[in-house]
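Q: What structure does this chain adopt?
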Amino acid sequence: MIERVGFVGLGAMGEAMARSLRKAGFGVTASVHRRRAALERLRPDGITEAADPAQLARDCDAIVICVPDAPDVEAVLFAPRGVATGARRGLLVIDMSTISPVASRRFGERLGELGVEFIDAPVSGGPARARDGTLTIMVGGSAASFARAEPVLRAMGRPHHLGPVGMGETVKLVNQIIIANVMIANVEGLVFAQRAGADLGTVREVLASATASNYLLAEWLPKTWLAGSFQGGFALDLLRKDLAAALDAARATNLPMPATGLAYQLYTTRSAEGDGALDYSAIAKAYEWNGDTAAASDGRQESGRQ
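A:
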């Protein structure tokens, strides 16, 4: 039975996830990954600090990792003061980062040699659902490891066991492939309508009952691009990183993904223009040119108020 949970990666998602674990009654100890401000905010909730991931491995029953990319996960696990240094047989590592399934399988094999169980459990839902404890959690690992991890995962959202190690990351990347391409399709279609003189509020209302209806069009864009802001949301550079992981995994199976390759290049262009920290709906900037930016912005804000 898991009672003590270690946590590494108190970012926009991780801070809320750690708080959810504490609310569920788990003892939570965190190790600072990059910045300690979040840990200081969590202290009043009863979350304590460990010097490093090695100490977490010695003191905890399970360790949750939620960091940006595969090199970060590898450092948490295998750096000189990483999890592997202090690991005991039977320790459970739950990696909730979004990385390549190729990397996840490699990490699982290395930890398995030490008698450490490993599952990959990336999430979908964003910071709001992390705060609510309602994340969608995609899990890869053995049935036994999933059963051990399930109470921990349910404290943060709804877990779905999808198969062996790497399958959680695979399904999460499916989600990222789809949202990246759907966002581009939404923006391209709406700019097409706007250039023709259509009112975007009316266009969205009609599309809500048409076959083009989708979550990003209904819920996401009204809070970002159509509201005249790219702040908050999901950083373009994080999505770009996820697309790179998807393309890496596709190459390993000789699967061509031309649409995703193009999407990656389009988001990379926006990142090169300095938009990497903005919400990924900033891809709309690729369509706002030839002096139309101000007019398009005014039109978006009018639509956002409808």
